[in-house]
Amino acid sequence: MTDRRADADKNHPNEFALTERIRRATARPVARVRVGIGDDAAVCESPQAPLLLCSDAMVEGTHFRLDWCRPEDLGHKALAACLSDIAAMRGRPLYALVSLALRPDLPADFIDRFYMGLETLAARLDVAVVGGDLARADHQVFVDIALAGAADAPATRSGARPGDLLLVSGTLGSARAGLVALEGAERNPPAELLDAHLRPEPRFDVARALDAPGLVTAMIDVSDGLAADVRRLARASACGFIIEETAIPIATAARDFASARGIDPLDWAWSGGEDYQLLVAVDPDAWSEQAAARPELKRLLTPVGRATAAEAGVQRVKSDGTREDAPDSGWDHFRR
Amino acid sequence: MTDRRADADKNHPNEFALTERIRRATARPVARVRVGIGDDAAVCESPQAPLLLCSDAMVEGTHFRLDWCRPEDLGHKALAACLSDIAAMRGRPLYALVSLALRPDLPADFIDRFYMGLETLAARLDVAVVGGDLARADHQVFVDIALAGAADAPATRSGARPGDLLLVSGTLGSARAGLVALEGAERNPPAELLDAHLRPEPRFDVARALDAPGLVTAMIDVSDGLAADVRRLARASACGFIIEETAIPIATAARDFASARGIDPLDWAWSGGEDYQLLVAVDPDAWSEQAAARPELKRLLTPVGRATAAEAGVQRVKSDGTREDAPDSGWDHFRR
Question: Which of B227, B230, B211 has its CA nearest to residue B286?
């Protein structure tokens, strides 16, 4: 505005300039935001419904490698992973805070491309990026996204009862197949597998389709693999689950990709993680009624098992009909 | 609960166990939290007032060193820094999300001690820790705190007008003195200087004292030093500021500590950062009236200058009465 301010910008090239670039990249007007990026805190309209809050952190080397993913992909995935938690509560996302710690050796356009990927997804889902923080990290890039949302009738993990039907949305295993393709630097791996790993899509469509009262008893997103997440559901609901191996939906591309490498694709569906599908316990009568009336539900979701008494734990029925205690082999970053 | 669950815990020692430890460390019941740590997202009561959202990230090596601060101090400071932003909006903090990326070589009790420090401050200010994320980072510890709060009448950075009085709470420079003491591994440095650096206190007392209508026109917390933060205030309010050097309040311990080392303590107050005091523009008439009626205001806040027209930029009046353009030397992690 004045020469003096231009001087200030020259003296503080990075911090002011970066904040300004982020503000421009996320400047889409959202009526419910009164004060966005650039003050001590954002000032937003409070929802009329209960407030949902969650955050999701991703660390370079643990969750992603920058030689595998473009900055746009990282921006997309960091937000998508956090959004998936809001979807799993049957909520609507409203506001995002983005904290980013960057290595000084990253290319100058890293931050613009990161925010381009993030903002494209945010705009599509009507989420306002209202703040965050920027820091320097000499060794590893860190991203942490916090979301505020709202839910009139939140679907928690804790309401499943023995006898409930267990459903999973979409297919499992593709994200792990994509990761394997990237790790092995495969030539021309199926694009849908890379996309499944790099650009997951939070299943708000599924969550919305499940909004009939009395239908959902418990819900969780499958971020760490069926093995880990069905256990979380069991633990929170104080029940067990029995899962039919042959019923677990696996995408054809993932199945083919695994088989060609002598891998059982079921392992990827079971313990691969990062599919960001929804795992849902439903009241069996309500499901029969809803699924009969709305055929799209059967396209969106596949029954894979049932809730049982807690004492039974988590069991799998193998293709030959025998039962076994399910291997507990979900993804755990602290165990790698 | 059952043997099977105990087995699951043995197989997943870290993630389940860590989450459980965090849940226990922050399990203080808060009526407005319906679902806390342990689901996909927390479910909380929405405030009746506008929602404040902010986050603050701290990176090992950039913001802290673990040979200088105890895990308790880090937990305290990470939350305090973010709370300071809520104080600077004249808000009340409600809910915190804590994302933590940990090195695998940290002592086993690191996380418990971190949460002890954080939760002690959270409990004192009635903030509920409702969620977050845990990740592994091989090289640097990373903490990001996101806060949701509320403010009936948020104090932004953007309302200062030429003629407004500029005030600062408490004293400046002590946090930098504490950092210098830690960097120099000083023997027996004054405890108040170490505390200023390691355990800053968000100034909700000051923000509350300033709640008279029409009094505050703009407010910011001094996290990066007077130099950087007065510029932010100037930029957001489209005004300039003139600051009397001799009026800047510096604690005696910081003054003595600097002088003994041949350093001008004013430099620490000006550009040291991390004091987490409040820098406030007030209507001069409202201030005169309020300060006359409520003597505690003069104890909490010191007038250091005035807002001017934007063209004047940020100027300092030196002790000999001459004016100069203020050096723009606030803390910028990207410039180190």
Answer: B211
| Burial class of A49 by CB neighbour count within 10 A (0 to 12, 13 to 18, 19+) | middle
Query: What pLDDT score was predicted for residue A11?
Result: 37
- Pick the residue from chain A with its C-alpha nearest to B54: A41
> To which H or E segment does residue B157 belong?
none
Residues from chain A that touch B151, judged by Cβ atoms under 8 A, are 43
Residues of chain B with Cβ-Cβ distance to A51 below 8 Å are 43-47, 51, 95, 148
Of B25, B240, B223, B234, give the one whose Cα is nearest residue B117. Answer: B25
How many structural domains comprise chain B? Answer: 2
Q: Which residue has the tokens 């845990």?
A: B134
Minimal C-alpha gap between A260 and chain B (Å): 30
Comparing CA positions, the residue from A334, A228, A325 lying closest to residue A273 is A228
Burial class (CB in 10 A: 0-12, 13-18, 19+), B29: exposed
Contact A148, A52 (CB under 8 A): yes
Per-residue pLDDT tens over the stretch A74-111: 999 999 999 999 999 999 999 999 999 999 999 989 99
Rounded Cα gap, residues A312 and A163, in angstroms: 13
Is residue A335 one of the residues assigned to a domain?
no
pTM for the model: 0.93
Domain region containing B11: 3-150
b/e per residue, A166-205, with b = 16+ CB within 10 A? bbbbbbbbbbbbbbbbbeeebeebbeebbebbbbbbbbbe
| Per-window interface: A 188-217 vs B, CB < 8 A | none
Q: What is the token pair recorded at A138?
A: 């000499």
A125 and A255, same domain (yes or no)? no
CA atoms within 13 A on the CB side of B264: 7
Count other Cβ atoms within 10 Å, centred on residue B336. 8
- Domain assignment present for residue B157? The answer is no
Q: Which residues of B touch A97 (CB under 8 A)?
A: 53-55, 146
Answer for the pair A274, A223: CB distance below 8 angstroms, yes or no.
yes
CATH number at residue A247: 3.90.650.10
CB A273 within 8 A of CB A225: yes
Least confident of A190-194, A242-246, B9-13: B9-13
Q: Crossing angle of helices B110-124/B71-88, nearest 10°?
A: 30
Is A5 in contact with B235 (Cβ distance < 8 A)? yes
